[in-house]
Specification:
This protein has 6 helices and 6 strands; from the N terminus they run H-E-H-E-H-E-H-E-H-E-H-E. By secondary structure, the protein is an alpha/beta fold. A 6-stranded parallel β-sheet has the order 3-2-1-4-5-6.
Length: 150
Amino acid sequence: MPAPLSDMPMLAETGLLTKELPAKLGGKGSSITIGLPKEVSLQENRIALTPDAVGLLIHHGFRVRIEKGAGLGAQFTDNQYLLAGGEIVGSPEEVFDSEIILKIEPLIESEFNLLKPGKAIFSTLNFPALTKSYFERLLEKRVIGIVTGK
């Protein structure tokens, strides 16, 4: 059950709460976990979700894991994500254990090693910079890839 509006003052102030009723996610006590890893590409300071967006997802029954310090480059603190209901975790392994991974940049080598079959990854792709082998590795890992061009 989502938290009452009074437990989410940040969302109430921004007016970002939706009017739809939250959909049930899975069976009793289950929820979908979304992971936000720290971006490791050179000069990438963005993060896939703001604390307000995390609060909305939490309100609708999702769990959100954020790698420690992942939002700092975008001027979002771990405390802001905690106040929104997110979980701060200390390693990329914990983030990549989520059912859905949200990233800004394409995967790098070390992140490929963390992918498990059946997980979903949402990311941008810089098509001219990626090789055929990149996409073959995604297929090998049997992950669901939802990507946008850059």
